[in-house]
Amino acid sequence: MPQMKGFTLLEVLLALAIFAVSALTLANSLGVTISSTARMQQQQLALWVADNQLVDLQLMPSSIPREGDSEMGGLSWHWQLDRDNNDDMIAQQLRIGTNGRLSYGLWSYVLPEESVSREKK
């Protein structure tokens, strides 16, 4: 009787199990990478919107509203500006987000106008 060549059922099932575990691990890793990339993209867009508002505030300090909406990257961003004035410095926090959630924040510290004009003299 000739000897049969090939894999046993146990060997095939073991190879299939190893492949399935590897495929699931790879799929999970891709999912994490995709969600991280989307979060980084949204974070970068929020930073750009916040930077734009802070630049507008530096150019026209008296005419900037305390909150508003902006469009960036196909998304509608809502932002809110909080200012804390003291003698030495003005702390400005711009909170920003989409879908009614202010999920990102950017702090800016500036000198009051009086201290800048005193230093120039």
Automatic annotation (TrEMBL):
It comes from the Bacteria. It is found in: Cell inner membrane. The keyword Membrane applies. GO terms for biological process: protein secretion by the type II secretion system. Residues 40-90 form the Type II secretion system protein GspI C-terminal domain. Pfam families: N_methyl (PF07963), T2SSI (PF02501). Its main location: membrane. Keywords: Cell inner membrane, Cell membrane, Membrane, Methylation, Transmembrane, Transmembrane helix. Cleaved by prepilin peptidase. GO terms for cellular component: plasma membrane; type II protein secretion system complex. It is a single-pass membrane protein. Component of the type II secretion system required for the energy-dependent secretion of extracellular factors such as proteases and toxins from the periplasm. Part of the pseudopilus tip complex that is critical for the recognition and binding of secretion substrates. Type II secretion is composed of four main components: the outer membrane complex, the inner membrane complex, the cytoplasmic secretion ATPase and the periplasm-spanning pseudopilus. Belongs to the GSP I family. This is Type II secretion system protein I. It comes from Yokenella regensburgei.
